[in-house]
Amino acid sequence: MNGASGGGGYGSGSAHAYAHGHGGMGGASAMGGGPSGVARRSHARSASHGGIMITRDPPPPDQGVGNTLQGMGGATEGAVHGRGHQRTFSHGQLVEGRRGHRREGSKTDFILPAGHEEREREREQQKKSVTRTSSFPKGHSRQASRSESIYTIRQHKRTLLQKLMFWKKTPEESRTRVVVANHVVPPHLSRAEHPNSTYPDNSICTTKYTILSFLPKNLFEQFHRFANLYFLFIVLLNFVPAVNAFGKEVAMLPLIFVLGITAIKDAFEDRRRYLSDKRVNNATCRVYSRDQGRYVKTKWKHVRVGDIIHLSCNEIIPADIVVLNSSDDYGICFIESSNLDGESNLKQRQSVKGLGMDDTFEVSKFDFVMEVGAPSTKIYHFTGTIPLQSGERVPLTKDNLLLRDCALRNTDYVEGIVVYAGRETKAMLNNGGTRYKRSRLERRMNKEVIWCVVILFVMCLISATGSGLWQNYYEVNATLGLVPFIPPDSLSASVLKLRLSNNSVWVGFISFWTFVIIYQVIIPISLYVTIEVIKLMQIYHIHRDKDFKDKKSGKTIECRALNIPEELGQVEFVFTDKTGTLTENNMVFQRCSINGTDYAHTPVIINKNQSSDQRDTFTLNNQLQEELASIELPLIYAQPGSRQNPTALSPPKDSPSERIMDFFFTLAACNTVVVAKHPHCDEMNASGMIVPNESTKESNTSEVDNASYSTTTSSIGSNSWGPSRVLRGFLPFSRPLSPIASSPRSTPPRTPESSPRYPAPLTLTPNHNQSTPSVSITLNPISQSDSLESAHGIQCDHQASADSSPVRPSLLNIQSAQMYNSNIMRESRSLTPSPLDIKPIYEAESPDELALVDAAYKYGCRLLRRSLHNILISLPGYGLSEYEVLHVLPFDSNRKRMSIIVRHPETQEKILYCKGADSAVLDNLSRAVDDKTKLRIFRTQQHLYSYSKKGLRILCMAKRILSDTDYEDWAMKHKEAENSLSNREHKLQDSYNRIEKNLKLVGATGIEDRLQDGVPETIQALRNAGIVVWVLTGDKQETAVNIAYSCALFLPDMEILKLNARTKDQAEQTIHFYLQQIDQQEEAWRHTDMQAIANGAVQGAGGTSRTGMEFSAIQHNNQRQPHLPKQRGLVVDGRTLVYILDQRANLKKAFLNLAGKCSAVLCCRATPLQKSLIVRSAKDNLKVLTLAVGDGANDVSMIQTADVGVGISGVEGRQAVMASDYAIARFRHLEKLLLVHGHWCYDRLSRIILYFFYKNASFVFILLCYQLYNGFSGSSMIDQMYLMVFNLLFTSIPPIIVGIYDKDAPEEVLLAQPQLYAQGRESQLYKPHSFWVNILDAAYQAIVIFFFAAVLHEDSNAGMYELGLTVTHACLVAQSLHIAIETKAWTVIHVFGLAMSFLLFYGFGVLYTMTCVACFGEPSQFGELAHALSSPLHWLTVLLTAILAVLPRFVVRAVLCSVNPSPVVQVLIDNKGSKQKDFIVSWSRSTSSSSVYRPNCVEETGDEASEPFSSLVTTTTVVTTTDEADV
After folding, report:
1. How many helices (H) and strands (E) does the chain have?
2. Catalytic residue among 320, 358, 399, 577
3. Is 291 marked active-site?
4. pLDDT tens-digit readout, 35-46
5. What is the pLDDT of residues 721-745, one digit of tens each?
6. Residue 665 burial (C-beta neighbours within 10 Å; 0-12, 13-18, 19+)
7. Which residue, among 1319, 1295, 1317, has the nearest Cα to 1247 in the 3D structure?
């Protein structure tokens, strides 16, 4: 099928056919050569893998286009997915297709929604009787990968309206939809008649409200909160005439205030979302226009389903697009989905093949109809077909889909058609809001609110009972309306109504609801708003902390959960990953073992002040260089005739030299590294115009050639500029070497390792093997002075005769290996860069692969290009060699290895190279080996053990030469496994294992993953703070234990307990043995300790016990105890964890008991699922607050399980960051986050919550006390306006300021004394009895304030409202003094807050009493405030009652600080006493010397600080004299 003739959609006359609903799909003349197009070489893939899957399902010949658009079915049985849980590959790694590379998925497991299994079983039963003819089955088809990290697939929830109208069935969405290219639809069709009219446009709207819906929707959401519903009930209750206590308008003030503040906050947040949507919707892309016949700039919001879009490299994808064409010859493109799923690795996508437009793609001739599945939240699931006119169908899979918000990488441009737009894109369907967690403190606060309701009920019951008794006491006069304090009923009322209204039971019932209105303030409605504001500002200040910014990466902290900052101050257990969390995840090649010989490499650490794009590297091993030189020299100096036989000078089979070459070839080839050579440039500008830039094109080509050539040549002098230009024309590459290269925007910097290996010019010898386009470079190490001349000679010789051979160099010019090495080192220090010294840009999925490829590059085995079917490698002595890639067997966590099968360019042998974990490779070695090979394997195993003890990450390399028979037999069975639709993954695993056997060991590597700066200090600080630290890692036990010692998790004098069980019974016996041993040790220690105390050997400081009142005393006492038990560390391997975490084994409780007796726990070989189960076990069984730290996708489940999840924004993508509550750049930032900000947040919120309960209760108790004076009539001495605004305005500002800015201890003290963290970890400030202590204090203050004021005003002429104003004023002063006592660090802001409280009180009083003569139908308060403030009795009452009210709290605090201070106070007292000695300088003229004493000086070095030291900087004898000048 040729591209000019178009295809199976709208051919000639199709517009008319579509408009009238008849006609065919295009005539035969429009078809072109269908079969020939299909026969074109391409990937024969199954429907689940992309590529071409041809099925036969021809439509009826008389079926029109209109019917065809409605009735085109899905793919046939071959494209049907299996039922239940289908495990499919996503796109993170290269997997073996038929030939060459193909990407496999990011290894991510998904947890399906609740009840999914039951629904699936029901569907399974229903489908048994139904023929499977649809290619789009319902239900959740999940794709999992082997890292078992967890995401939750979102379901489509029913709206509230749908739930209310339950009798109406929701119309079921069609399983398929038809998409037609917009440029082939006739322009005269109306919008309703357009085939794509039912699909939404590409505009997005993440806002919650509109201008019209804001008020009703926001109120509806706010009334989901219990406190708001309660106050709404109070407002409605106040509208009942018999019950009302306040004016209707006044009763609404608290509710309106809280609702208004919350609405303003919600509106502000929604406006930010609106601006973000506007910015996204107004972004531009290029859409094909039929009218102009080219691409035009179009805003994202105007993109429609069916539009053809042109995207350039690094451009963000505006919608979900099916790729139709790519700049790559093979139709490959790459995307980065970090904005979508957090994965930073590149994912490969493939353009649709089989449409007859593979050679030349013309947009105007694309007129196919596409059938795709309905939109879903499943990111890595996409199915569809393109029916051809011949009846064949081309399948569409996830490999053909580019998702919105991903970025196009490593491709000049792609063209595709939009299939999902706007809210139907997978990115928008999976767009979740800010996570909401309920902290432990908030849960406690909600319980206290319930107790406030109970107190309210009791107070109302007491008051109602008193009102009924009062009414009953005056029962005789009740009928006459002469009950004191009770207003009489209307004289015109009926006798029955009078009797009812004067009945004591009825009066008590009515009074109960009246008192509910009066005492409503005890429920702190403003508490919720205040807490939200405080938490928001706390998060803001955490964001503003400059210490959280990493100078190397530029990243800072991200607070993704806004409502649990206080949880940071209550953490008890920390679970942390190792790789990338405690370590840099910047792998440095350190050791390698080849032929049983260990080669060490010295690391070279890049200065931290240098740019972040420079990696740590290493120096080459001299011995290994010499061995490589001994292999390379014979090939370099070979006679020209000897090179006619490719194997004449090659290392012998199975020789040490061959193993060295195979070792470095495995490092360079057995990976998924993408090679980048040059920036990707698109000739189409942003407006859709083709603007060719010849200069840029030439510079790009030159740059590519230079880069390619520099990597193929082994020795070119640093000053050989002339020959480089001449010899560039000899290269047989007219196009860039990397069709899948990425696109750096600048020339890669010259690195030391890119210097040439040998300082000599070259000679070029073309390879005469015509089967593969390989090139060999032969180098002549002649003197440097003759380099330029020799290069010109080479040029002339080559021009004269293509068959002429270069002149053999004189033997006098041959250099020894030592001279070569010295030249290498001298040349590597050259400061003059050559245009050929440009290293390729490698992009790897993991730092391990990058380190190995980088190591191979430095030793001359250089990966230059990786295409779909070939890899181009420069080998020492051989030059350029292009290997055909037959299969790539991807890495997975089950096999723990990766393999690549290639065809050797000269020998045509099929060779399998394998790289993986030691256990995965050594177990698959051939057993039929001689003693010499066994010895070599034994030595390699010894090296591996030593590498593990040093904390290195180890890998083994092996190879296998496949015979043609073995390979063909395996390839046929492997193809069947690939095309299998049932149990496909298991069959592929068996296929991999079948070929990865009988391997020959090539070598092993040890890579160092260096600890991050400050990790040991941070872990030590966390342990000093009383936090239990667990490290959960998937590394080997030896490696993990070594890292545990390095990061101070294990101490040198610590007793290490190891759980390495192979059976359940063995695990149980070991755990119980350790527990019994520990119990015996503790019993012996207690006996010895008691005996020592009895003998007077152990004495407390000042008679206090070991648990004294200060940490210093505790430490001194502990130092005096001679028989302290040794600290323990626990090590558990993954196999033992299987038995421990098994519910049937019942070992979890015993294991946690054992772990609780250990200072640190290390879990090795732990899977992601085991990590999650460990965190959940500690969280549920030990009832502790947990924090999990990780940096990769395998840590997501652990992070989401913990109470607080912290992600490290490292180099493994952003999965952990996206799943976390807080994201930090370095592990050491955790210390300040917990010990400083966590401590502050918990301290502030605890005190503020208790203060709110106190201040509301004290004000209400005053109203209760007044009922004793008015016969429980429900009247109040305090004006209703003061009642409503007292807690909302007068006393609201100081607690907010204290909650945001107060500090009980400075940052330096909290970091220097991690033990102070116990205040939050043990919840010392907010205990269960703290609420009741504050309620009792509120009751006492209410009694003092009211009754003292009543006694002082007993004989005065002050009225009821003047007394009420005095009591209100006194209550305000008392509560201000109370918050002043609670304030720990006074600043100008604190003083401002208190001043604002009084200014609001006086200002409101002046406005209200001077302007409101008779408001709301209540008695006038005109001039009341001025009269009261002018009375001495008023001020005497205010000051006296306020001081007496807070005096007990002040005395208790003073006594506690003096007799039994809290740890924080004690440290502050000690710090204040030692502060004067911090810097003492004395000088004596008689000795002319000075003495400087610095007890705790911290010396800063760069970003880090050294350990504190205490020493005399200058020690001299100071002689003091009585000389007046000295004094």
Report:
1. 47, 46
2. 577
3. no
4. 333 333 334 333
5. 333 333 333 333 333 333 333 333 3
6. buried
7. 1295
